[in-house]
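Example 3.2
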Amino acid sequence: MSEDDKTEAAPVTSVDLAEEYKTSGVAEILDELDRELVGLKPVKQRIRETAALLLVERARRAMGLSYETPTLHMSFTGNPGTGKTTVALRMADLLHRLGYIRKGHLVSVTRDDLVGQYIGHTAPKTKEILKKAMGGVLFIDEAYYLYKPDNERDYGQEAIEILLQVMENNRDDLVVILAGYADRMDQFFESNPGFRSRIAHHIDFPDYENNELLTIAETMLAQQNYHLDPEARDLMAEYIRLRRTQPHFANARSIRNALDRARLRQANRLFETSKGPVTAEDLSTIKPEDIAVSRVFTMSDSNVQPLQAERK
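Structure, written as tokens:
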């Protein structure tokens, strides 16, 4: 054997983790996550810790140390609109760049995509979704709806059994992320211990603070070349304060819906009031009147009592 052959066969004796962090693309992904998502510091910290673990495991493998593919299935818990799908997308990219999954794509599904309506329908539906997800990440939103113990004719249990088998046997080629409300996910895991034993990473997504939601609103508008004027900004802050106390609040999702309605009102306002040419500033500015007519203000505690008094 030549000296060159001996050199090529020699095992890696050291790894520069800082260099691996840069060249692997992990730094880029985490920076993108910081730019895309406001707040969520505990979530971002968990993602960074997971990335560090995977980098170290990859270094151990390169050095020939004892190695076993880590269990990467995850649970994302939190209220709607807290960034779970966005983080799942970035996690798929992260795992791909580190070599833990082949493709790095995300397949997002709900119960309806997995569970059939009659005997013999569920298995092919579930297997078809799993086939699409192989080599990437399968994201199951509101996963607890797979399990309906009160309905004897429900076929969700069949989908669960197939998922559990694949999560165990194909864990080096598929990562499953279960998502939903924290309390319902706890009940789901209690009823399906097979899932809990296969989930290595549990990440809780907190609700956004009011100031974070205002920043999100301004960021969403800026991405479409809109902005709030100073008075509209103050009114949006009040809208956020009131909206989060009312039913069906969904964090950033509710803010996006509110901004869509504000843009609709702005367009109508311009058509109804403009008597001549409009400027780019006119077309880009959301004003207080575009927000003030929202039902959120008429539903607030300060207005509900007078309305009730009028009915009496």
